[in-house]
Design goal:
The complex is a heterodimer of chains A (127) and B (277). Chain A is of the alpha/beta class and 127 residues long. Chain A has 5 helices and 5 strands.
């Protein structure tokens, strides 16, 4: 069981992901923009962040950059979950320190949750 | 005195000539400077168009895929009974609707791929890959579709196949297009076989089907954009005609080859070969 921060502005998409993550026993906080995400990060450091890129206030890449620059958040694994998928975007995500770049449209919520479980296992955070 | 006069005239002529030459040079240099400025502005303008096109492709990708993703996930959730048990009729309608949604996702993906290919932005992110695993993974993706159409789908991978350095995601797309076509154009009861083997310094993947084949007269266009063979159109099957074009682009960008051997009414064999190094 882990604490997951889901940064996703599309409430229809976050509905499915939140439900599947909770089914697996994780605690989920949903933030619809980077401001809300930073507020959630300051309140409690999650075990993993699922991060969309196209967000209402700014690019998710900016938040990722700030997370990696902050001592308290730099070790938190970040999985980019976006429907962008050009090579430049994937490279940028990896360059900024994301552990994985998943194109949402290519996966089901179950597959995403399974990938989350694998990453958590690798980082030894799952209980 | 005459010679002094001559010298003066010559000097004046030389001066005049220099002045004319200087003026010509000045005009020429000014023209070059103006053209250079115009060229620089044109280059900036083209770079801006390029940036806008790239941004458009990214945004189109996101804006088209996101609602379709939500619709697809909603279908899956309903079919899994997350909103209550569905009866047979509801299941049938949902499955057909999901099928159309996935076809739409596929089409969006193909159109965006083609836009990026045309824009020369289609790059590879290569990594060392177990070919056998890739081939088995692709076959697995299509096993349900093959079962629904009552087509036997087999896979055969040579042992000790060397790893190859490829863009796994794109090879998945390239091979997936071939397997998808093979299943789509093979009548129920038919067979599709995917095999992988080493051939000299190449790893080759063959997709063989017992389907409708491609008429001889159409084969030269098989890998062109929007190609659909006359017998495929007659079958009223859905297709954008972009799959083989995208597959060819992906394989050629890897330095590989793709070819088809086909006989109308008997089936087709598509062969991809990729360099090991």
């Amino acid at each position: 069981m882990a604490q997951i921060l889901l940064v996703e502005d599309d409430s229809f998409i976050s509905l499915f992901l939140e439900s599947k993550l909770k089914e697996k026993g994780h605690t989920v906080t949903v933030a619809q923009d980077t401001k809300a995400a930073e507020k959630a990060l300051k309140s409690a450091t999650p075990d993993l962040v699922l991060l969309d890129i196209i967000l209402p206030d700014e690019s998710g890449f900016k938040l990722l950059e700030r997370m990696k620059a902050a001592k308290e958040w730099s070790a938190v694994p970040v999985v980019i979950l976006s429907n962008l998928g050009q090579e430049t975007e994937i490279e940028e995500g990896k360059r900024l320190g994301a552990v994985e770049f998943l194109v949402k449209g290519n996966y089901s919520p179950e597959e995403i949750v399974d990938r989350v479980a694998n990453i958590l296992e690798q980082t030894n955070k799952a209980v | 005195m005459a010679s002094d006069l001559l010298q003066i005239v010559l000097a004046l002529a030389a001066l005049l000539l220099s002045a004319v030459l200087f003026l010509l040079l000045y005009v020429r240099l000014r023209q070059i400077r103006e053209r250079t400025t115009a060229l620089r502005e044109a280059i900036q303008h083209l770079k801006e168009i390029d940036r806008v096109k790239s941004e458009f492709i990214s945004l189109a990708s996101h804006q088209l895929r996101t609602p379709l993703t939500g619709i697809r996930w909603a279908h899956h959730a309903l079919l899994e009974g997350q909103a209550g048990v569905v009866n047979e009729e509801q299941r049938r309608i949902l499955e057909r609707s999901l099928d159309r949604t996935q076809a739409m996702m596929g089409l969006v993906g193909e159109l965006l791929d083609v836009a990026r290919i045309e824009d020369q932005k289609y790059r590879l992110l290569k990594e060392s890959t177990d070919t056998g695993e890739l081939v088995r993974g692709v076959v697995d993706q299509f096993s349900e579709a093959a079962e629904r159409r009552k087509i036997s789908l087999d896979v055969s991978v040579d042992s000790n196949l060397p790893k190859i350095t490829i863009d796994k995601t794109k090879l998945n797309i390239a091979l997936g297009n071939l397997v998808d076509n093979a299943i789509k154009y093979t009548p129920p009861g038919g067979k599709v076989t995917v095999s992988a083997m080493q051939s000299d310094e190449m790893v080759c993947i063959k997709v063989l089907d017992t389907g409708i084949g491609i008429p001889q007269g159409d084969q030269y266009r098989a890998f062109s954009k929007f190609f659909r063979s006359s017998n495929a159109i007659a079958m009223h099957t859905r297709g954008s005609g972009l799959g083989l074009y995208i597959s060819r682009t992906i394989i050629e960008k890897h330095g590989g080859t793709i070819a088809v051997d086909s006989a109308e009414g008997k089936g087709s064999t598509f062969t991809i070969c990729l360099p090991i190094r």
